[in-house]
């Protein structure tokens, strides 16, 4: 019992005498727990909110868009639904596309909007549009409910006006559209009542589309149902969407932030293990004689390990509790966008238990490494109590740790910054299946797309400000595979060599019998370069050879490209890509062509508008990871510089006795601390660019973005971020070396301990 009491006293005294080391261990465990808990809380909250909204809104399992629906086609759809017992409910919901140039919200024109904005009425059987309390709103005549995502984007509030042409509607509230909430969904629905819908429909400058929607029984193979719909030859001249795809798109924007926080949490965990293990080994090295003495007194090595382990278990409990508390505090501001678009996730006990489990796993991993390190106590002989041993030099180990931590922290700060810069860059358009032009002109919200497209082409040919342009016409075709399987395919026809996209395999189509597939389409259809693909359109069959595979994260990542004008087929929409001469007045030019019926957008703005939500969340994650990186590098550097100073106390005292001043010694040790930090930052920049690019590429590949490459902002990524880390490290080193002033010149006269 005396031995145990001695050990407990030893550990208690150790905590009191080494408050900095104890505090650092708790800090690492806290920040590691916080990040793991935060990852789980945000992910469970996001998926829970998305699933809850989709269930409340009764999102269709399969939805096919079609324009120009005729009575005969509706009868065929009804017959198809009756023949397929897996159909629980079905309906056809009209969607009235509006000309963005005539649409204003709260006094702000939507002329530069990249979204297909349109009016919709409440679903009759399912696919309900919900208000901000996730209830079905009652829309009165003269009122409109606006998509929730537009509230903050255009600074709107209830009572503001929505104006289309000469018609004015009062914004009565905001709606959550479980299908089209995300800005990555290219369409947005405004909820009005039947009277206002008909009134605005008669104004003209609108195009009516139809959402052919099916609610299926649980357990139905949606892919097989989609194939059956295609094989039936039913109305399908627009894109098709499935429930899993809706869920995927909804979760992607906030999912990017969660993915980054998860990567940071893994990095912090590794740093925590490394630093805690080093501090523990250093402590054991200092306690060799005490441990040897305890063995002489008959205390077993297992008992000694348990007492040491108890100290770190105490640290772990404190860190886990503080980390969970901090995670719950950070959860609310970080999921603000999720609550706005999807509402609060139902219940909280499940998420709390999952976050607690994640914390326990993280702390358990740290404690396993602590337990493994404690096996070193078995190597200490009782003779250590009688023989003074020379302490091992640990300066190199501490310097190496500073370098490794600096590299890891730089990696954590640079990766999300590079991802944000890449997604915000105009060149990101190449991952959206479109070449890198300067401007994009969309022709969608009009009854005669071909006529408007031809007028625009004629004007562009005569325009002296235009350097080059291309016309891309999108058609809906039926793909027939060798095994007889059919699938609806959105095919873009045009000359793709003017503004080429990046190909992962093969080349762009240059012959009329060649077709390029998006990577997700190639994977789903089981086709690669050199394979044959049969397309049916307007009753005609044509066999194509797959010439290339490219990235596309739009339209669910499922598109195709062929060479030619596509004039022989009805067009679903047209896109004109334009580059202007340097002397052109861009803003005036864009406004002139908007008056001709096109939605004209700067490519940079198009990317930001489409991925605005994801960009905001990525930037938020970048700030969180940068804050974590700066905190870790500051604490680690200060701690280990203090340890180095303490370790070399005798030498510092000796130098002072020889005439060196405290400032002289501070400069020496400042250089020793900054050198590994500088090398670590350089290594972190390199790995953050190379390995970080691969990690982000893995994530984007899930959505069809193959061949991902970072766009580096030299000022932010190569100057500002490293400078912030180095400034933090320098401040920490200077605080660490400040202990040198307390070392007295006479200490060396007592001999080296």
Task: Give structural notes.
The chain has 4 domains: 1-62 and 237-392, no CATH class; 87-216, no CATH class; 395-425 and 611-753, no CATH class; 447-596, no CATH class. It is 51% helix and 18% strand. It contains 20 helices and 22 strands. Strand 8 (161-164) and strand 9 form a beta hairpin. Helix 1 packs parallel to helix 9 (301-334). Mean pLDDT is 83; it is low at 388-394.
List the helices and strands and how they pair.
Elements: H1 2-17, H2 19-57, E1 62-67, H3 71-83, E2 87-98, E3 103-105, E4 108-109, E5 116-120, E6 130-131, E7 143-147, H4 149-153, E8 161-164, E9 167-176, E10 187-191, H5 194-201, E11 206-216, H6 222-231, E12 240-242, H7 243-286, H8 288-296, H9 301-334, H10 336-342, H11 349-373, H12 395-424, E13 439-443, H13 449-462, E14 466-480, E15 486-494, E16 503-506, E17 514-518, H14 519-525, E18 532-537, E19 540-550, E20 560-563, E21 573-580, H15 586-594, E22 599-602, H16 603-610, H17 612-647, H18 649-657, H19 662-701, H20 714-737
Helix pairs in contact: 1-9, 2-7, 2-9, 2-11, 2-17, 7-11, 7-12, 7-17, 9-11, 12-17, 12-19, 12-20, 17-20, 19-20
